[in-house]
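Hypothesis: this fold can be encoded by more than one sequence.
Test: take the structure tokens below, design a sequence, compare later.
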């Protein structure tokens, strides 16, 4: 039994020493010291997927998906050359869409919407190249306009 445990510990040590995982350092993903291209996965302790990201030449590219511990989709993010770009979506644990945001070249750009779990719109705001712009609206939990501001 002692020999089996010693062999198992040695096997784990050797496996860990020689199999490097994808690492995130200084804003980029690497594997074996080289910029990584492929899909990066993270898991919760119980083995359920936590995150799935596409990476090209070390940078996030395309969609990244984040999941709740029950495996349901939590967020969908979009990147181009490592920068936030495109539409980001967020759902609550019951899979109700609760947010939609837009980015371009790493900056907030376009409409942003937020809803409560009942599906009532709570916020509608707009950004242009990272700056607040246009009319911003906020509704109360009953769907009544509670606030409006012009930027």
């Amino acid at each position: 039994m002692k020999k089996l445990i010693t062999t198992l510990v040695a096997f784990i040590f050797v496996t860990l020493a020689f199999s490097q995982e994808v690492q995130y350092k200084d804003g980029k993903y690497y594997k074996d010291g080289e910029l990584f291209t492929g899909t990066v996965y993270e898991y919760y302790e119980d083995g359920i997927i936590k995150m799935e990201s596409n990476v090209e030449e070390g940078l996030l590219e395309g969609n990244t998906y984040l999941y709740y511990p029950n495996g349901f989709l939590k967020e969908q993010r979009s990147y181009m050359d490592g920068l936030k770009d495109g539409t980001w979506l967020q759902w609550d644990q019951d899979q109700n869409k609760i947010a939609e945001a837009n980015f371009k070249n790493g900056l907030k750009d376009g409409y942003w919407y937020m809803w409560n779990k009942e599906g009532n719109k709570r916020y509608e705001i707009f950004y242009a190249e990272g700056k607040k712009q246009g009319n911003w609206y906020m509704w109360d939990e009953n769907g009544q306009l509670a606030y409006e501001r012009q930027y």
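The chain has two domains: 22-84, 85-151. Residues 64 and 108 are 17 Å apart (CA to CA).
Hypothesis status: open.
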